[in-house]
Amino acid sequence: MNVVCLGAGNVATHLAIALKAMGADIVQVWSHDFKNAEILAALTKARAFHNWKNLDRNADCYIIAVKDDAIPAIAAQLLDVKGIVVHTSGATPITSLVGTGSGYGVLYPLQTFSKSKAVNLTLVPFCIEADRPETLEKIDAIAHLLSTSVAEVDSEQRKVLHVAAVVAANFTNHLYHLSAQLLEQHQLKFDLLKPLIMETAEKVQSALPVNVQTGPAVRNDQVTMQRHLELLDGSANLQQIYQSLSESILKTYHKKD
Amino acid sequence: MNVVCLGAGNVATHLAIALKAMGADIVQVWSHDFKNAEILAALTKARAFHNWKNLDRNADCYIIAVKDDAIPAIAAQLLDVKGIVVHTSGATPITSLVGTGSGYGVLYPLQTFSKSKAVNLTLVPFCIEADRPETLEKIDAIAHLLSTSVAEVDSEQRKVLHVAAVVAANFTNHLYHLSAQLLEQHQLKFDLLKPLIMETAEKVQSALPVNVQTGPAVRNDQVTMQRHLELLDGSANLQQIYQSLSESILKTYHKKD
């Protein structure tokens, strides 16, 4: 299988390297920043290109892994290519690819990627969608090269998944940051929280989060919550987040009517 | 070492079992609910008791692991015991134990415990504090029986740690719940999010959370945030949390002045 990779960021890098390892040929890499294209091309023995005139139009699969708002401009370059075209975005509908390739669809890995950290893709859920059954079969085969967890998810559901991922991962990481910042202000090390953070994530691998909630809000422990809010008097931002998340927990477990 | 365990909840259970495994004798267990005391006593070959007249006053260490607001009433029963007295609370000052035992202090494990899930205590940070150096030495020895991570933390700092733990663990778990609920409303499985949740926690074991933030808010991607807020129109609670956490991320990375 010949693959052209459009994009050279975190997602493009992880997918291209994993596909290469599974025997695919990465023939070309494009990036709006040519240097990044060269780096990923070197890692996958591909050729980097920048001018669309040089695009290889005979590959089997074109993977668009760029920022959401850059997808339409890339798609416009892929109208007459021979292979199928997929994007990897959680928030972009399949219709953004209408007219491209010999078929088009979505290959959305539900995971957070950093270039500096290897991720085992085998367990990452790949959410796939296609314009028609023949394309779905091809995308399904590619997804199964990468992972054992492949699910057909339509554009509406994928939007929901993307919001849920923002809440469970991006917001969670920001809470880690706010607590790290609070500790730093009091000469305490973030290291102290690391085992707690791991255990909190591990717990919900086998239990529903609603069943393992702990802390002052779920106990409706008003005295402790009041003390915490007073301690946060100097950090208005965290104080407000403390209040709104505590209220949400209270609503969940202590409905008034 | 002879230990009396006051409390039979999650923390008491994990500590008593681990101390027993390290060679301590759990001689007695008390709980306001006698049945729970009997269960923990059976697990640790101790005797359960309910009437304070039956308290063994000659143990080496009395561990109070009960709800915060129940600590003073227990402490009042431990004025003339022979050994040292410790509580395990993040939010309660050491002064709540003044006058108890032959010395008193705090043994606060910074971890979340469920009865149904074993926790490896070896890596759990134990925050300790004492009324005087001799007591500190004793509490330090007990903490080192349980864990390799022991830190002296005074009552003021422990309060901060407790707030940070609420933010990084309790609030995080609630975000997991809100995303699980959103998925359920759209016939999607929470399983899809589990690898993402693990990876998000694993990332900050070796990097500062501020350096690995991803998502629409850190990119200042207003279009995606607006779409997400529209999708959350039916769930006012999550919509409000989405807004306030996104604003907090924007403030952190895109300061206006």
Short description:
2 copies of one chain form a homodimer. By secondary structure, chain A is of the alpha/beta class.
Features:
homodimer, 257 residues, alpha/beta, 8-stranded mixed sheet, 8 helices, 8 strands, 44% helix, 14% strand
Describe this structure in words.
The structure is a homodimer of 257-residue chains. Chain A is built from 8 helices and 8 strands, in the order E-H-E-H-E-E-H-E-E-E-H-E-H-H-H-H. Chain A has helices spanning 10-21, 34-44, 71-75, 133-146, 155-185, 194-206, 222-231, 236-253, and strands at 2-6, 25-30, 47-49, 61-64, 84-87, 104-109, 126-130, 150-152. Chain A has 257 residues and is α/β, with parallel strands linked by helices. An 8-stranded mixed β-sheet of chain A has the order 3-2-1-4-5-6-7-8. The interface between A and B is large, with 95 and 95 residues.
Low-confidence segments of chain A? none
Q: Enumerate the strands of the largest sheet of chain A in spatial order, edge to edge or round the barrel.
A: 3-2-1-4-5-6-7-8
Order of helices and strands of chain A: EHEHEEHEEEHEHHHH
Radius of gyration of chain A: 22 Å
Helical content of chain A (DSSP H or I, runs of 4+) = 40-55%
Cα shape of chain A: elongated
For the termini of chain A, the CA-CA separation is 60 Å
Largest interface in this structure = A-B, 95 and 95 residues
Major sheet summary line of chain A? 8 strands, mixed
Strand content bin of chain A: 5-15%
Number of strands of chain A: 8
Mean pLDDT of chain A: 95
Derived structural class of chain A: alpha/beta
Q: What is the chains' assembly state?
A: homodimer
Number of helices of chain A: 8
